[in-house]
Amino acid sequence: MARKHIGKVRDSVDAWIDAKIDFAGDGDDPSQYGIYWHKGEPSGLRLYIGKRKVTWQYFRQSRDHGDRDHTFVTLGQYDRGRFFGVVRNPSPTAEPALHREPWHMSYSKACDAATVESAKIIRGEPTLNANETPTFAQAFDGGYELIEGKRRKPVKIEGYLQYLERQAREAGKPPRWADKVRSLGRCYMVPKWGKYRLSELADIPNEVAAWLTDDVKSATSANHIARVMRAMWRRIAKRDPRIKSDAYPTRAHEKKTERGQQKGMTVKQFAEWYEAVMALPTPVHRAYNLLNLLIGARPGELGRSVWGDNSPDAHTFTISDNAKMSNAIAVPTTPEIRAVLKMAHDANPDHKPTDLIFPGCVSNPDKNGFNDLPARGHALRRTYMTFAHNECRVPTQFSQWLMGQAPEGIKANYLLKWAMDNGEAIKEAQHKISRKMWAALTGKKVVRLAA
User: What pTM was estimated for this model as a whole?
Assistant: First the structure.
């Protein structure tokens, strides 16, 4: 089949293109669809007439060491325009009857753009198409293929989430940070920027900064998102020559001021804190805060614990739902801990095994009145560690084990053997902490709790 070419008369090429679009669009001659090549200079310029768009393209073939190569660049779009009627005897200032969109690329502008691309090839500069850069969703999750080098061999670039998961897997750790990044992407980044090309994001740093400031309400989440996008961008830029490492989209973002870290309590504050906790509206809320202090648990893990793993009479309290250590955390119980669990049990005696022990205590701290307490959440975890060290003289490794942490200085291969060898000492340390902590809270050695 012979090649179709653009009309020879340069001054009337735009009108000739309009006619071709009319014939193809009206269905009179569907053969008008397709590619029309430009004869002469600049060589490589061509026009694609499709059903929805008309596009100027630059295509040039070459050979390198016997291998075929090519360059393809989308130069711009040709707008058919709209007629607004013919005005008789128009004034010199009257608007033309034919209106085209601002992004319209005429034949003369397409020739200039193609000449620039030809010059890049002569100088040896890469002529990469900006529209070929991956979307944010591809770079973030799933990856994409990159045509690399003159030999045009496809290379698989893994997504940023896959990279984080691989890092955790190689280190032998659960992918906690990857899960956090995936959650941020699902809630914020992908719905907003998923369909944007990276080349587009590089050109709108102020828009990205405004989105982080106005739309992402949490200062902590906004700073995490800015850090994730910057890290993802720089990693992709090391592998994709079309992306500049210093053009990351969050470069205009100014770090938000986050809320101060929650600090622990001193022993002098225990009595005041205990009174505030016992004034909470329900026994479940009181038991949650008391147990959080008595075992130094992570508040989220404690709030997700279920009755199926625990009982008020058991000698261990088990945290197994999505624990940070990936394995179940078994905490030795004491009379004080069992009394607090009994308070929560008596508040809901007909519970099912799948029911939460402390329903609503993590999701609604404001509504439950927790924010008015002198200390709550992670502050109680820090208080437990400080109290164990300063008041009870418990070894650091024991307190770390009781809090669900991996003790420092002990390799994973010997961790189970260490726990078995020191089992009795660990239980005694827990009893000592609970006994002294209860005395500091209530001023009494005997455990008595009212529901």
Answer: 0.52
